[in-house]
Amino acid sequence: MRIVLPALLSFLICGVHARAGVPQTTLHHRNFFYVGAQYVKQGDSTIMEGAMYVERLTPQHVTQPFPLLIIHGRGMTGTNFLNTPDGRRGWGDFFLSKGYEIYLIDQPARARSPFQAGVDGPQSTFDTYSIESRFTATGRFKFWPQATLHTQWPGNGSMGDPVFDAFYASTVPSLISEEETSVKMKNAGSSLLDKIGPVVLMTHSQAGALGWVLGDSRPDLVKSIVALEPVGPPFVNAIRPPVGPARPFGIAEIPITYDPPVSSPGDIKREVIDIGDSSLYTCFQQAEPARKLVNLMNIPTLVVTSEAGYHTIYDSCTVNYLEQAGVGVDHMRLEDVGIHGNGHMMFMEKNNIEIAELVEQWIAKTNAK
């Protein structure tokens, strides 16, 4: 039997991809496994619930000290980071090319992480109007002042456009209850960290709250956090419905560790502050003296905000809340570093690799300390 050497195999794979019109990819090994599952009674027998799908991508040469664990946002899956809806190179391949091992997950009760009827709570699905108005064609709807600056989505962002159709086809139903999601993710995510060891944790949107929960649950195993437009602002939902109370523990739906300790959400006294355009949302911080998020204080954190996404309205409020609670945060506003026109799905947009390069530089610098 003739053995194909890795370099030749890489050449053959890339050659096939090039002929098929697919971007060349970094040579890597792929496998998958599940964590977090437990057996529960159903009728006269037993089923398994809470199992979370984990996809492991290992480049031919791992050169970075910690793998990258990426958690997608609401209605999405780990496929967000494999390639873009128009077939360009995604963040997954970019970080593989930089020597990072990558773990991609599907949140519990979603996509390849089985949803169990009668055990898991109700689900909801993003309709096309929600996707167009919030993510892909924001300039047409103008729901926030910066929405008209959105120029980086590939295609016109509307139903019937091939890129939009490809993206919308990748969306999936999600659990309606963010509290239920947080509990399931804390269980499965903590089990994953115990299995694979220390990581750089990257979250997007809804997963921002899950990142704070995992950092709090396993502070010694989360070496740094990159939060791409993390869900916010503290204590309330804004811009996107349902607008109203949310995240009763400030940045999380379920208890996280404060000092002095918090026995119930009412222990966290809050006050309104003015950051940004307060006519579009209510920004809260803690009333002084502020409790400290002691398990997150030693985890370096980067919050990334696009120029045109709805998070540009209130991410500063989330950053302020973290800083007041003792967390060391760098806030990268893309327009401040010369990157313009991006929206909430920045890692899929036309200049996605340019953004990835800046994020990777922060990760490399932070984890070299």
From TrEMBL:
Keywords: Signal. The keyword Plastid does not apply. The lineage of its organism: Eukaryota, Fungi, Dikarya, Basidiomycota, Agaricomycotina. It holds the Pfam family Abhydrolase_6. Residues 1-18 form the signal peptide. This is Alpha/beta-hydrolase. Residues 68-351 form the AB hydrolase-1 domain. Coiled coil: none annotated.
